[in-house]
From TrEMBL:
Species of provenance: Desulfotignum phosphitoxidans DSM 13687
GO molecular function list: dihydroorotate dehydrogenase activity
Annotated keywords: Cytoplasm, Flavoprotein, FMN, NAD, Oxidoreductase, Pyrimidine biosynthesis
Functional note: Catalyzes the conversion of dihydroorotate to orotate.
Superkingdom as given in the UniProt entry: Bacteria
Protein known as: Dihydroorotate dehydrogenase
Pathway it works in: Pyrimidine metabolism; UMP biosynthesis via de novo pathway
Length: 316
């Protein structure tokens, strides 16, 4: 699948690198883009230097992974070399940010916006950090406050990344839309969960609990995207467990405009983006349809190319 437009920016395809995977520096981001990714996302940037949690931080469970990396970051004002390296890039970048308060989100967002990313994504959904967790993503008032405050200080489109832990993720998405978000990203890792070593009688992760990712959470992610699509008119980046072109089709049918991948890099390598894009293109050709035809197609009665409800949605 070739070029598409998303929030006024040209992307070479609808696939997104999720935050936290291969997003540590400009060279890696460029490599991911060259490997077939349409939009790359920086690892979440925080208000102050943070080491993250001690090892072990990531465990492969077979059908997915559990992790508690702990949002490590050099801090928003200690990244001069990276911003300089990204200044002359020829690929689109989504900058993920986080904070422990509305004021911290605003401080980081304002600075990061001045560095010229194509989008800013507010991470209000991390399940494995005590101070910078998913508080904002499960409470409607908090979600509105941080989204609205950030929207007022940035000069680029705003994406709100949500957690499946929200009691009603559709309501949280609608609140973010009302507060000024230009798009929704869903979902972050599910959980928190825990794995116990029964011989050592202790949790395996150093932080004890962590977020679940990979194929095991795809049904949860698909349901969340489905619920969000019914609640908002802005575009959705659907991610969580996508590893194949057919998985991407499922996300589009649930209502996603773009599809993100993270753990898929672990299972299929860095070229998973060009592989999934090819699989998606082949599936669409075999079914004589386009991506636009299948976005939201699982929704009744708003499925189908002639649907009034589909046509009323905002153009990405």
């Amino acid at each position: 699948m070739d070029n598409i437009t998303f929030l006024g920016k040209q992307l070479k395809n609808p696939l997104v690198l999720a935050s936290g995977i291969l997003g540590n520096n400009a060279k890696i981001l460029e490599r991911v883009h060259q490997a077939g990714c349409g939009l790359v996302t920086l690892k979440s940037i925080g208000p102050a230097p943070r080491d993250g949690h001690k090892n072990p931080t990531v465990i492969d469970l077979g059908g997915g992974m559990i992790n508690a990396v702990g949002l490590p970051t050099p801090g928003y004002d200690h990244m001069d070399a990276e911003w300089q390296a990204l200044a002359n890039r020829d690929f689109p970048v989504n900058a993920s940010i986080y904070g422990g308060s509305v004021a911290e989100f605003v401080k980081v967002a304002q600075f990061v916006s001045d560095q010229g990313p194509d989008f800013i994504e507010i991470n209000i959904s991390c399940p494995n950090s005590d101070l910078h967790g998913m508080l904002f993503g499960v409470d409607e008032k908090a979600a509105f406050a941080v989204t609205n405050a950030v929207k007022n200080v940035i000069a680029v489109p705003l994406i709100a990344k949500l957690t499946p832990a929200a009691p009603d993720i559709g309501k949280i998405a609608k609140v973010c839309e009302d507060a000024g978000a230009d798009a929704i990203c869903a979902i972050n890792t599910a959980g928190p969960g825990m794995v116990i070593d029964i011989e050592a009688r202790t949790p395996v992760l150093a932080f004890k609990k962590g977020g679940l990712s990979g194929p095991m959470i795809k049904p949860v992610a698909v349901r969340c995207v489905y619920d969000i699509y019914r609640a908002v008119s802005i575009p959705i980046i659907g991610l969580g467990g996508v590893t194949t072109g057919e998985d991407a089709v499922e996300m589009f049918m649930a209502g996603a405009t773009l599809v993100g991948m993270g753990s898929a890099v672990r299972y299929r390598g860095i070229h998973v983006f060009e592989q999934v894009n090819r699989e998606l293109t082949d599936w669409l050709a075999a079914h004589h349809c386009t991506r636009d035809d299948i976005i939201g197609a699982a929704h009744d009665p708003i499925a189908g190319p002639d649907s009034t409800a589909k046509k009323s949605r905002k153009t990405p």
